[in-house]
Amino acid sequence: MTNSSSFSNNIVLCVKDIKKVYPNGVVANDGVSFSLLKGEIHSILGENGAGKTTLIKIITGCITPDSGEIYVHGNRVNINSPMDAINLKIGVIHQHFTLIPSLTVAENIALSLPLNFSLDLENIKKKIRDIAKSINLEINPDAKIEELSVGLRQRVEIIKILCQDAEILIFDEPTSVLTPLEVKKLFSMIRELKSRGKSIILITHKVKEALSISDRITIMRRGRIIKTLTPSETNEDELAFLIVGDVRPSFIARESNPGEPLLIVKNLKVLGDRKEIAVNGVSFFIRSGEIVGIAGVAGNGQKELVEALTGLRRVESGSIIFKGMDLTNKSPRFIIRSGIAYIPEDRIRRGVIPNLSVAENLILKSFDSPPYSRSMIMNRNIIESFAQNLINIFGIVTPNSQIAVRNLSGGNIQKLIVARELSNHANVLIAENPSAGLDVRSTETLHQMLSDLRSKGIGILLISADLDEILKLSDRVLIMFNGRIVGELDRNNIDMNKVAKLMLGAT
Amino acid sequence: MMEFYKSLYRALLAIAISFAITSILFVLTGANPFLAYYYIFFGAFGDLLLITETFVRATPILLVSLGLAISFKCKVWNIGAEGQLYIGAMIGTLAALSMGESSLTLLISILFAILGGAAWASIPAFMKARLGINEVITTFLMNYVAINLIQWLLAFPLKSPETLFPESARIPSSAIFPIIINHTRFHLGILISFLIILPLMYFLMMKTTFGFKVKAVGENPEAARYGGINVGRTIFIALVISGALAGMAGFFEVSGIQYRMRPTISPGYGYTGIVIALLGQNNPIGIAFASIFIAAIINGSSTMSRMLNQPQGIVDFIQGVLIIMILLSDMILRYLEKKELILR
Amino acid sequence: MIELIIGLLATTMATSTVLILASIGETIVERGGLLNLSIEGTMLIGAFLGFLGAYFTGNLWLGLLMAIIGGIITTLIFGLLVVKLNLNQVISGLAINLLTYGLCLYFFRYTFSQGAMPYLKELIYPLPIPFLSQIPIIGPILFNQTIFVYIALISAPFIYYLLFRTSFGLKLRAIGEDPSIAYRLGINVNKIRYMALILEGILVGMAGGMLCLSMFNVFDVRITGAKGFIAISIVILGRWNPIGALGGAIIFGFTEALSLWVGTLIIGPLSASMSQLLSTLPYSVAIIALLIGGRRAKGPAGLGSPFLKE
């Protein structure tokens, strides 16, 4: 009895029976109960769509639950806005940082603090330096956020919630944007914070990470808590099984049989949004029937490279030759028609037009060529049967072809994009983080599709921030750092340590 | 089909609420709102002459709003139709005056009016498509350039020597639309607008690849570009088409009604067109009905003002309220659905 | 000649003031991410209520108070539409312009249905500042002006301080860049936007009031003559900075003063023609200035886009 009361005294945060159903009918949290002890690192492990982020949003006041209770230090609380959470000393490092790029570090941190009308930035800068020093970090308070790397931005976030005197620190998928070395640094920082008595929740879908750092691990699946364990009483396989709920479908990679080079890129130089050199003399080639993976930390020129290859960004110098045809600085339309397909990372903003119908999105890249239109007049019947055909072949789950795409799930939108890109009889497919935001099943389906395409002789360029995905699918891996290709490795002799080092620019 | 009924609901809801709100104005100034709406209806549809006058009024509004619909669908907010209309009317008039009597005068004048409106719109279109300068500001400011310039032209260099007013000389009779219904002002231009231009625009917007491009760019320019659509060019053409139709509307007023270019040729058709494009929800059929509706309000209001001794301004007020109610109609519809007050 | 130029510059200050007040007001709300096209209607309401207030009370200052209150109410209605109800900012702004135009026309004709054109018997006259107004050249240009001119000149550095040196300004700018991040940071987005709109209402209402209370002694529904839209152009050209807006507004004020000045200078048959033609000048200048200076203008990243919580 005494034992349990001291246990409950140690509980800094407790949620009971949280329920949240989104307006579109998705049950994100279905009776979630969970508690966090003082000074522990507690991982919440689950795949995308398991409801982890929803739970965090509820705890931090970004959304309100339909029902359920939240206790902080044993007191029942209502968290209706982010401000309430801050006042309860709950701080969160969101997966997507809450920083304003055009403002400085000090200004960004000031925004999250109680302020006098007259702005005393000097005082805030001093506080930032003090806190940074106390956890052995270096940060320039006058730097603009847009000038900082992703790793540094994350530090700003950490310092920010420490400036708010947060006692409960929540990290939402903090490693997804970091290099292996940065992950190490982050984890030692998290342990440092723990040793200072902070209580930490770590949201992740990576089993190894959870095992390596947590005191306790809670597994979530489809909006429910499945189990809470300590790392010593479990192992990787068990956790993986608990996350998915059944055995993962196994993925069969066939032997590669590359043919002639299809796409040859030479000395490509491309500028970024701020006129900085983003791609700095990149050369590589893609053969038919192979998957070439580009590994690297996001923001090292991958986005600009893809945009240059697809005609969405100007090439400063160098050349892109596709089947003997010069595609350098050609229009997107010309490049599409030459036979280059592209699955963009940002599906909703670039990949589809959410307010247009499934059929209209399926013909987005072919509407102005026969048989879908002739002399500017669209043929509705042919478009309709074309759409129906693709819906069937790719198993896109939709009531009909006339419904607006915004009503489809993420996985189905991705299927739609893949269907459209492949319907154009392309020879080269550029896939940019194609599994981002997909659940395990959709990801497996997608990987199988990519592998099958390779067997059919299509050359695939796979850009992914997820190293596991790259290693799983690629025949060759190129490593990109700071706008350059800094290494190339063959599928058969991949040294993880070397990849990790190259991603950080070491030689 | 579902979408069609929803659009209709939205429009009718917006109209009903706007009428209710406008009634407050009538009550405040001591007029009976029911009587007021009766007079408005009577003034618009009371007899054959009044009906033809409603169509006379609806025609320039129809042309302007058909053009605006294509630009709005592209999310390009052209609020410069008023200026484009004036420039079109002026250029058309100049063409007619310099051609003199000939069998081609009318056709060529219309062509020049279209070109004039298109050219005037091409300036903000270029600034938007190439330089990314907000078209709302440029199109609106260009109205003032156009109207002030035309006032000067008509008061000085182009002033008709025969009259005392600032207006051009009378256009040659071969540039005038023939009257279709005797003893009314129902002219050929009305038939052309409703029977040729309207179906043409419907076809352009609904059945062609250009209509598809416009829709794609309006809904998601980033995805449109990724899909191989030239976003800048689509925006440019959409804005220029809306200018062309406004220019046509301007010359139709000269050729069908005024027979001279006057600085008062439009009482704000360019702005009314905005309301109608929105009320018709960028659908040409909806716009046709909405044009007749607003024309009836405008014509009926002058009868109503006379009968009930009401001041001017009601028409502009109704238009402002209408826009807000169209914007709100989605929200109101959702509310009604939630309360299960209407069938889904 | 020097007298004429001093006169021209003094007139410039007066004609600029409406634009300074309006463009600084618009700068504030645009920094908060709202594109307020209803500034034209706000100014008109200011002019109308200013005129009515002064006409019926006989007190110009009560008129000015009415103008400011009218301005605040109009911007708050815009706020209701775009902040509370999240409607399209461009269309809502246009709707308010039509609505206010209709209301002013209706009630003006209703109030003064018969008889002669109503006019104010006196205007708010210049208030020379002791000593300073005696300074040669600068004195008559800057310090022998109406209270509006002084307020406008002071408001530029004052609003600059507000935007860049206070927590209110920092929060407002954060909202303008990305309202959803600002919201997640615990900033009360709507409250701050309403506060910015109230400030704009005060400044633009005052600008409208100035038209009727200090420049013309009559009211007409066309009195604002797109000055609101010129003010929006000035905001762009001034790069969303109150000091920039001040400079831009003075340039536009100069073109307007110039057209008035030329009209009085040239005598004879050409005079009417010239001044008619020159009336297009401010609008043409605005478009040409945007053509040259507007291309690299990068406003607040979230300007004009809707803000939906989750």
Written account of the structure:
- The complex is a heterotrimer of chains A (507), B (344) and C (310).
- Chain A has 507 residues and is an alpha/beta fold.
- Chain A has 3 domains: 243 residues, Rossmann fold, CATH 3.40.50.300; 175 residues, P-loop containing nucleotide triphosphate hydrolases (Rossmann fold), CATH 3.40.50; 79 residues, no CATH class.
- Chain A is 34% helix and 26% strand.
- Chain B has one domain: Orthogonal Bundle (ABC transporter involved in vitamin B12 uptake, BtuC), CATH 1.10.3470.
- Chain B is globular, with a radius of gyration of 21 Å.
- By secondary structure, chain C is mainly alpha-helical.
- In chain C, 72% of the residues lie in helices and 0% in strands.
- The termini of chain C are far apart.
- The model of chain C has no long low-confidence stretch (mean pLDDT 90).
- Chains A and C meet through helix 3 and helix 4 of A and helix 7 and helix 8 of C.
Notable traits:
heterotrimer; A: 507 residues; alpha/beta; Rossmann fold; 6-stranded mixed beta sheet; 18 helices; 22 strands; 26% strand; globular; disordered N terminus; C: mainly alpha; 13 helices
> How confident is the prediction overall: mean pLDDT of chain B?
92
Strand fraction band of chain B?
under 5%
The end-to-end span of chain C amounts to 64 Å
For the secondary structure, the number of strands of chain C is 0
